[in-house]
């Protein structure tokens, strides 16, 4: 049985598709399944932002086949780990949780690098021209830590 990890951001077109692609590239596919979703429904069915696709491709990761989807309550039952990109996403997901067990699955992703500091992965959508590169590098670093933890725990 695969260990399932879900990455969540606001629209599921910038940060969470990158996080999905990066983490999936670091984990054995036969043991782990990584997916992503957004807390909002604006981009359901759409490909990731072209800038996320480009920065992933530059780093030899393909995310162009991903399709945006919205987080739903059933994801609490489907996934073992849920990583959110920022505090707003965290609050939105936690509000949907119906038990302490569901809440415990949800983690702010950068807490893996900066425990209890509640650091956000910035949303690059309206940001600086190099924002997608900055976000990629942040996610790549934190996904190294997450992948090691998951492999150590589940292998």
Explain this structure to me?
This protein is of the alpha/beta class. Helix content is 41%, strand content 14%. It contains 6 helices and 4 strands, in the order βαβααβααβα. A 4-stranded parallel sheet has the order 2-1-3-4, sandwiched between helices. Helix 1 packs across helix 6. It is globular and about 40 Å long. The N and C termini lie close together (12 Å). Pfam families: LMWPc. Keywords: Hydrolase, Protein phosphatase. This is protein-tyrosine-phosphatase. It is an enzyme of class 3 (hydrolase). Belongs to the low molecular weight phosphotyrosine protein phosphatase family.
Describe this structure in a few short sentences.
With 155 residues, the protein is of the alpha/beta class. The chain has six helices and four strands; from the N terminus they run E-H-E-H-H-E-H-H-E-H.
Helix and strand layout, with pairings?
Elements: E1 3-9, H1 15-26, E2 32-38, H2 50-58, H3 75-78, E3 81-84, H4 87-96, H5 100-104, E4 106-108, H6 131-154
Parallel strand pairs: 1-2, 1-3, 3-4
Helix pairs in contact: 1-6
Pfam families: LMWPc
Protein name: protein-tyrosine-phosphatase
EC number: 3.1.3.48
């Amino acid at each position: 049985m695969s260990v399932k990890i879900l990455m969540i951001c606001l629209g599921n077109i910038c940060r969470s598709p990158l996080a999905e692609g990066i983490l999936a590239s670091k984990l054995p596919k036969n043991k782990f399944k990584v997916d992503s979703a957004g807390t909002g429904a604006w981009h359901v069915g759409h490909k990731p932002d072209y800038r996320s696709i480009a920065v992933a491709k530059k780093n030899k990761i393909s995310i162009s086949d991903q399709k945006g989807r919205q987080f739903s309550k059933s994801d609490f039952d489907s996934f073992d780990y849920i990583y959110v990109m920022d505090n707003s996403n965290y609050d939105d997901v936690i509000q949907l949780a119906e038990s302490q067990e569901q809440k415990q699955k949800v983690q702010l992703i950068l807490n893996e690098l900066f425990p209890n500091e509640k650091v956000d992965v910035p949303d690059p959508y309206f940001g600086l021209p190099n924002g997608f590169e900055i976000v990629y590098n942040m996610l790549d670093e934190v996904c190294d830590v997450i992948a090691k933890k998951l492999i150590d725990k589940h292998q």
